[in-house]
Write a structure and sequence with these properties.
The protein has 114 residues and is of the alpha+beta class. It is built from 3 helices and 8 strands. The protein has one domain (3-109): Protein of unknown function DUF952 (ADP-ribosylation fold). The longest helix is centred in the middle third of the chain and has 11 residues, at 39-49. 25% of the residues are buried. InterPro entries: DUF952.
């Protein structure tokens, strides 16, 4: 089992939990897919797209549970990034963790990703 990660505002994730499905953030809607990162990409994604933003969560997802709707596509720096071309069913979520800002202004990731 592989794991992919979604960084999301806590309020947006809470709405997804209420609905039972995550349909994406505004950037996902604009691009036509839900952006994910690997463990090795998540820190850079947070720094590039969520710099200084608090009140975020990190969502760990079983990539095998996403099926063929998950595609690995070339993105930043030529690296392959996971993109989901379907809503995220919450049954695929393994865990959700807080993603607080540290004293240095960078996000503090769970030890599993450090």
């Amino acid at each position: 089992m592989g794991i992919v990660y979604k960084i999301a505002p806590r309020a947006l994730w809470a709405e997804a939990v209420e609905r039972g499905v995550f349909t994406g953030a505004p950037v996902d809607h604009a691009d036509g897919y839900i952006h994910f990162s690997t463990a090795g990409q998540a820190v850079e994604t947070a720094a590039k797209h969520f710099a200084g933003q608090g009140d975020l969560v990190l969502v760990a997802v079983d990539d095998a549970a996403l099926g063929p709707a998950l595609r690995w596509e070339v993105s930043r720096g030529g690296a392959l990034f996971p993109h989901l071309y379907a809503p995220l069913e919450l049954a695929a979520v393994l865990w959700v963790a807080e993603l607080p800002l540290g004293a240095d202004g960078r996000h503090v990731f769970p030890e599993a990703l450090s």
